[in-house]
Amino acid sequence: MTAAAMVSCAPEGDPQLGKASIDKVIAAMTLEEKAHLVIGTGMEGFSGEAPVIGETRNLVPGAAGTTYPIPRLGIPSIVLADGPAGLRINPTREGDDQTYYCTHFPIGTLLACSWNTELVGQVGVAIGEEVLEYGADVLLAPALNIHRNPLCGRNFEYYSEDPLISGKIAAAYVNGIQSNGVGTSIKHYALNNQETNRMKNNAKVSPRAIREIYLKGFEIAVKESQPWTVMSSYNYLNGVYTSESKDLQTTVLRDEWGFKGMVMTDWFGGADAAAQMWAGNDMLQPGRAGQFEGIVEGVKSGRLSEADLDRNVRRVLELIVKSPRFKGYKYSNKPDLKAHAAVTRQSAVEGMVLLENNGVLPLSEDIKKVALFGTTSYDFIAGGTGSGNVNRAYTVSLLEGLSNAGYATDPELETIYGKYIEEETERNRKAIDSNDPIAKFMPVGRAGEFVPDAKLLAKTVAANDAAIITIGRNSGEFLDRKVSDFTLTAQEQGMISAVCDAFHNAGKKVVVILNIGGVIETASWKRLPDAILCAWQAGQEGGNSVADVLKGVASPSGKLTMTFPVAYADHASSKNFPIDLSFGMFGKEEGAAPEKNVDYTEYEEGIYVGYRWFDAQNMEVSYPFGYGLSYTSFEWGNPTVKSKRNETIVTVDVKNTGDRAGKEVVELYVSAPAGSLDKPVKELKAFAKTRELKPGESQTITLKVNNSDLASFDQAGNAWVADAGEYSFLLGASSRDIRATLKSELKGSVEKVNPLLFNK
Predict the structure, then answer these.
(1) Are 386 and 441 in contact, with CB atoms under 8 Å apart?
(2) Among 457, 471, 455, 456, which residue's Cα sits nearest to residue 499?
(3) Which of 45, 272, 415, 757 is packed most tightly, with the most Cβ within 10 A?
(4) Are 448 and 484 in contact, with CB atoms under 8 Å apart?
(5) How far is CA 31 from the centre of its chain?
(6) Active site members
(7) From CA 166, how far away is CA 518, in angstroms rounded?
(8) Number of other residues whose CB lies within 10 A of the CB of residue 547
(9) pLDDT (tens digit per residue) in 441-454
(10) Is the Cβ–Cβ distance between 152 and 96 less than 8 Å?
(11) What's the pLDDT band for 503 if we cut at 50, 70, 90?
C-alpha cells in the first residue's frame, strides 16, 4: 500500500506521533506496521544480496537509506546519509539544474593526528550544518574501529591503533555534528577490522582484548557524546553475528554504558531478523526481502516477544521525533560551502605530520620555482573510496596549491605528467568490469610512477630551485590493501633516488609529500630526501593545505596516531590478517572449506596492538606512535602529579623556545605496577594540545586520569582490576620520547561487570 493510500483511508482518531504519547502510538500499531517500521525502505536499483551504496528510494537523492513511514499515525520517513569525511549525496538531480555538492573534509586519520578535540568539534559543526541544510537527519559516522593492521582498506576512515584517542576524537566529532540538531551513528560496532569477507568473517578475540582495545573507544564515545544511533558491524564475534549479539547490543552498550539511542545494522548486515530484534538491534537497513516475514513470524511463533519488538519500535520513534524532518525544519539546500572550505583547509594543516626536516622546511624565500614529481602531485587524493567518499565540486591539487601560494612550477613536467596520467587512467578504466555492481565505488587504478630520465632531470635541475615528490596511495571499502601497496614500487624507489641524486648534486633540496590514507614503508628510503611531510588525504582543499605548511603559513603540529613499522611483518597481527588475498567483502563461494583470515581471523596478539606490541618487544620502528616534528621547539618544565580519591592530576608547563609560533601535543602514558595480570609497558591515558604559542610563550597543561581507567580486564574474574601500588605517569612527546616520569601510589580497585557469552 502506498503512503498516499494509507493517508486516504486512515480512520479518524488515530493517535499522531508528536501529539499523542509514544505509548499510545505503539498501542495503535498493528504487528505488521511495527515490523515495517524497524526495517528500512530498501534501495533504488537494489537487486539480490549485493549492496549498492549511495542510493535511496526518495527524499534526498544519493542518501544511504530512509526509515519506513506510517502516515496514518503521523510517522514520517527520515533520511540516513553516509559520512564520515562529509555528507555523501548525489551532486546532481534529474530535471534540476542546481548542484548539491558537499564539502570533502580531511579523512578521519588526519583529524585524529591533530590530537585537537576542539578542532575536530569545529569540523563536526560544519559537517552537521551540511547534513541539516541538505535535508538529512542522521549522518552514518564517525567510524572508530581500531587500526589493528596497516593494510585494512578502511583505515583512512578510522582514527588510531589506540582506543583512547579513537574514543575522544569520535566524541568531539559527534558533539560537533549533533550541535546542529541532527544525529550521528558511530560505527562499526564492533571488531570490523578487515574488509576481506567482512560480511561473514568470524573474529576470534579474547574477552580482555575485546574489552580493553576494541570496545573501549566506543565506550568513551557513548559516554561523552551520546550519539543518536550506533551501527552494528557485519562480522561475527566469537561465532555470533554482532547484530545478533545481545551481549553487545544490550548488555554492554545499554546496561553497562548507559546508551539511550537506537541501534541499526550496517547495510545488509546479519542474517536472522528476529534474532537481531531480540538482541536489541532496533533497525535493519536498508531493508531486504524476508526480513519483514522473519519478524512477523518470529512474534507469532513466540521466538520473538512482541514486548521486545515494541521496545525497538519505541527507540525508532524516539529517534524520529528528534529529527529535523519530523520537526518540520525548512532546509535550504544551500549550506555555506565557502566557509566550510576554509574549515577543511585549516583543519587539514593541523593534522599533517612532519616526519623529517633537514632544515629545508618551511621553504626559504629564495625558493621560487619548484619541480613537481610523482603523478599524485598533479592528481591529488582528497580521500578514500566507497561510502567514505564525498561528492565535492573540486579537489585542489598540489600543483594548484603551490601556484596559489605564489610558487612557479615546471611547465614541461606538467605537460609530461598530464599526458602520462591521462593515458594511464584511460588504460586502467578500460580494465574495469562494468557489470560489477560495486565497480563504481572502487578507485580506478591510479597511474604508475613516471621515472624521469637523466636528460630530463638535468634540464629540470637547472630550471628549478627545489624538487617536491608526491607519493600517493588510495584505498577504501570492499577490499584490503596488499603488501605491495605498503611498500614502494621499484618505479617510486627509482624516482626518489634519481631526483634526490640529481638535485643534491646541484646543492638543491628535495621534499617528499605522502598523500596517503594508511601506513606505508618508510625506513628504506627516508634518509634520501631533505624533508618528509605526511599530508594524509586532506580533503578538497588538500593542495592549498600542503602549500600552507610548505610555505610556513602555519607550523605543522600533527602527531602520528599509529606506528610506522620498519617492515610490515613486524606488526603483531601480520600473521593473522588476509595478506594479498582478493576475496573482497563477499568472501568465497558457499560451501568452500573454511580458510584462515577469510572465514575466521584469530586475534592472537590479544591486547598487544600497535605501540603496545612494539614497546613490549623493544622493537625498532620507523616512526613511533605519537611522533611528529614542528618548525619550532618546545621545553617542558615543572611536571607535577597529585592523586585524589578517584583521579590523578598531572600538570606540566610547555614553553615555545623557538623562533616561530606553534602548537605542542602532550601525551600522558601510564605504566602499572606488577600485579595479577600481564600489562603493557605503557598505555596512553590522556592527552592535550596547547593553543598556538608565540616564541617565548608558555602554557600550563593539566591532564586528568580517572583511577578506574587504570584498570585492566581480568577475564577469569569477569572484572576490571586496578592493582594497588606505585604507578608511573609518563609525559611524552611520543611513546618513545618520554620527557618526565612521575610516581604515585594508588589504592587498588575491582569492578565486577556482567557475565557475557563472549567471555566463554
Answers:
(1) yes
(2) 457
(3) 272
(4) no
(5) 38
(6) 266
(7) 16
(8) 25
(9) 555 566 678 889 99
(10) no
(11) very high
